[in-house]
Amino acid sequence: MLDFLSNPFDTTQTPHSGYHWDHSSRRFFEGWYYRVTLPDEDQSFAFMYSIEDPIGGKAHSGGAAQVLGPNDEYLCRTFPEVKNFWAKPDVLALGHWGQSNIDIQPLYLLPEEFELHVQQGYQATATLNQGIISDPSTGQYCRWQYNIQPVYGWGNRTSIQQSTAGWLSFLQIFEPGWQILMAYGLASGWIDWNGKRYEFTNAPAYSEKNWGGAFPQKWFWANCNSFSEIPDLALTAGGGRRGVLWWMESVAMIGIHYQGKFYEFVPWNSQVSWNIQSWGKWQMQAQNSHYEVELTGITDLPGTPLRAPTEDGLLFCCRDTLQGQLHIELREKKHNHTEIILKAHSSACGLEIGGGPWNDAWQSH
Q1: What does the angle CA 65 – CA 71 – CA 72 come to, to the nearest 5 degrees?
Q2: Under a CB-based contact definition with an 8 Å cutoff, are residues 193 and 265 in contact?
Q3: Could you tell me which residues are beta bridge partners of residue 20?
Q4: pLDDT tens across 184-220, in order?
Q5: Distances (CA, A) of 225 to 46, 144, 269, 334
Q6: pTM of the full structure
Q7: How far apart (Å, rounded) are the C-alpha atoms in residues 82 and 299?
């Protein structure tokens, strides 16, 4: 049913788009993140899907869907039954049913069939995000269905797409793995948030994922692909302390897509530095032999605690806002000076800190 997704000529499909679980009993999680920004409403929605220990029968076996909605409001539904989760190993396609009126093994359904048969759950691909979850204790709910037209994966528009963590991410050296699946796309559809229906056409969309058997100790993240003056611009930046074989390392990266070109600042081709406050201000700089970039994300909002897979299961361990302010400047190095390629600002930046401790600012050394 998913043959239409495995197009070998699709230049936006990234490495690691498929599901990574190898059916072993080792500790394992995989998480997916979809975001859509509604500039006219000055709001964003983020949909977070996760599965832990899918072999079943373990203390943390199960899945969840979380939604960060308007004004950073939050909704979560857990799906303890791992056998109702499905995902494809070769393309981006997954789903989890919590409640349905159809007695079949969960799989991809046509959107109208999904709406008819699934009362709690979701399904998501490279070109569709659909679901419904509700909180039985409060009655709050979210329903959503939108199609996605990918524009940028992770790399130059006409090139083979890249691994976010480089070629070493294909080996089980880095834990967890991280992959931006779609830096920028166009979303059209609707979201019903507690009775308020948001309809949109060609809204900026984004998706990423992470997976592995170990968990980062501490991390930060910034993402924005909605700039009022510059429609063709997407930024994702982040860093963290993660396990590499038997040691821990602190790494960070900045990736920018602009006018068909990918500007990549990663540890193996650039110097990347950061100064991240415990909440409220994210500052990063990076440079390589050709370019340099500076970005600052700020917020005076309190942020919303979110759950994430940890060694001890799905726990509140990060804080997010989708309404951060972002300033970014990208420059090209010339023979004896630098030339500004772009200066941009947005008030729709996603900002996150996670793990800990966050007693004071985290500065690179």
Answers
A1: 40
A2: no
A3: none
A4: 999 999 999 999 999 999 999 999 999 998 888 899 9
A5: 13, 21, 24, 27
A6: 0.95
A7: 37
Q: Which residues pair with 221 in a beta bridge?
A: 238, 352
The 10 Å Cβ neighbour count of residue 40 is 8
Q: What is the pLDDT of residue 242?
A: 73
Measured in residues, the chain has a length of 365
CB 101 within 8 A of CB 86: no
Sign of CA dihedral 61, 50, 277, 214: positive
Q: How far apart are alpha carbons 263 and 290 in whole angstroms? A: 10
Cα 264 to its chain centre, rounded Å, is 18
Share of the chain above pLDDT 70, in %: 93
- Distance CA(80)–CA(82), nearest Å, equals 6
Half-sphere exposure of 278 (CA within 13 A, CB side): 5
β-strands 174-175, 304-310: how paired?
Answer: unpaired
How confident is the chain (365 residues) per 10-residue block, as mean pLDDT? Answer: 43 92 96 97 97 98 98 98 98 98 97 98 98 96 98 90 71 74 97 98 97 89 95 94 73 95 94 97 98 98 96 96 98 95 97 95 92
Cα separation, 206 vs 187, in Å, equals: 9
Please choose, from the candidates 96, 33, 93, 99, the residue with its C-alpha nearest in 3D space to the C-alpha of residue 64.
96
